[in-house]
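User: Second chain of the day. Same drill as before.
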Amino acid sequence: MNFKIKIFADGASISGMLDMMNNPLISGFTTNPTLMNKAGIRHYEAFAREALEMITELPISFEVFSDTLEEMQRQAILISSWARNVYVKIPSTNTHGEPTTPIVRNLAREGVKLNVTAMTTPAQVAALLPALADGPPAIASVFAGRIADSGRDPVPLMKECLQLLAATPNVELLWASPREIFNLVQADEMGCHIITMTNDLIAKVPLIGKDLDEYALDTVRMFARDAESAGYQL
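Assistant: Same format as last time:
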């Protein structure tokens, strides 16, 4: 399996991150407040610093959680100071729909590596790019999985976003929230730079190209095994 795209492991488990560090497919890590909350993490900085003790070379993204731009900027500068491989995730707007472009511009000028997240349209990407142009390495995260959840094919929109990024070589396009392993194939074929995947989804990568007759037989065997295990009788 030779992919051009970089796979970033997405999660909030120290043990899970440690597992992925030993996986040659993995080129980086991402997390977010929702994943951290679901994992029961209550001390944000302590979790991040523990992760950074073992992840010292690969990029890892941590997200701000303020809803005011001024506080977002302060948090971003603090998070960025934790390690040189940190990217700071900034949502494209706050919860009131106010664009974060002004602080993205400020932070890029200060040399903060950013991962601008929670975008779903090429227009949002286009509005963001001037703020990141000529700055340090940055990532534009477009939630292709949520686009698909809306009943739309994300590939044409992601291709349009990729074309927009051609003028800003310091910015990479990230396919966020994939729903199935085929999304990895789609993202790789269209030339997307990065895709985030949960550990469970990454575990399915070896299935790519699996013989379909063999896969059907595996499925039949699974049904038979589970029926026997349950002790079903008629």
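The chain has eleven helices and eight strands.

User: Great, on to the next one.
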